[in-house]
Amino acid sequence: MEIKEVHNFNIYEKSEFVEIQNELKKKIMLRNTFNKNNIKLVAGVDLAYWENENEQYGTCCIVVIDYNTKEIVEKVNSVGEIKVPYIPGFLAFRELPLVIEASKKLVLEPDIFILDGNGYLHFNHMGIATHASFFLNKPTIGVAKSYYKIDNVDFVMPENIEGAYTDIVIHNDIYGRVLRTHKNVKPIFISVGNHIDLGTSTQIVSKLVDKESHIPMPTRLADIETHKMRELYKHKISNNVVRR
């Protein structure tokens, strides 16, 4: 899969992170740039971390499924040392290098990417799902399992009914949606990444949730894969099998 080189990642200053976010957010499109009736492949993206000799490593796994049959059609992964520390609001600069490396290995070209994290539901509307879209050049959706307050605004819990939702409105702008995918189960937090609207994002996520979990299949499968690959790479790196 071809990746757009939007910017490099040889940056470590928060002021530069903000500058890049401010430039990219001008190009966010909160509408569908595709025919939602023609979706065939959806990719789930997730990462896992570990430490080795005081250095932090990560692996990114991407699992692509057939949107209609729900069958897995491709799996790829990447591994590398994590150079950027965790800074709230700037997760993309920490994780995207591995996401991009894994995406380059894809033979198939997903129509939609779902990332474990936020998109527009971010203080600067530039969560990892939105940021990633500029490199992937595909519509993206952010699905998070928890909510971090923006401007001290909390969310309203949806009814305890499958499919119930409430919107997170901040400064009269809808930042994201709280969706109850199963009764008696914690809701998830959906937000637009880019090139898609919130209603379509909700429909896609809802269709991809099964009885196994309250999160969509692509990111659930990617999460499972990251745990497998983390154990594999931990062993290889500790034994100097993988080049640093």
Automatic annotation (TrEMBL):
Gene3D superfamilies: archaeoglobus fulgidus dsm 4304 superfamily (3.30.2170.10). One of its GO terms (molecular function) is endonuclease activity. Pfam families: Endonuclease_5. Its EC number is 3.1.21.7. Mg(2+) binds at residues 46, 116. It catalyses: Endonucleolytic cleavage at apurinic or apyrimidinic sites to products with a 5'-phosphate. It is found in: Cytoplasm. The record marks 86 as: Interaction with target DNA. Keywords: Cytoplasm, DNA damage, DNA repair, Endonuclease, Hydrolase, Magnesium, Metal-binding, Nuclease. The keyword Hydrolase applies. It is an enzyme of class 3 (hydrolase). The keyword Aminoacyl-tRNA synthetase does not apply. DNA repair enzyme involved in the repair of deaminated bases. Selectively cleaves double-stranded DNA at the second phosphodiester bond 3' to a deoxyinosine leaving behind the intact lesion on the nicked DNA. Belongs to the endonuclease V family. This is Endonuclease V. The lineage of its organism: Bacteria, Bacillati, Bacillota, Clostridia, Eubacteriales.
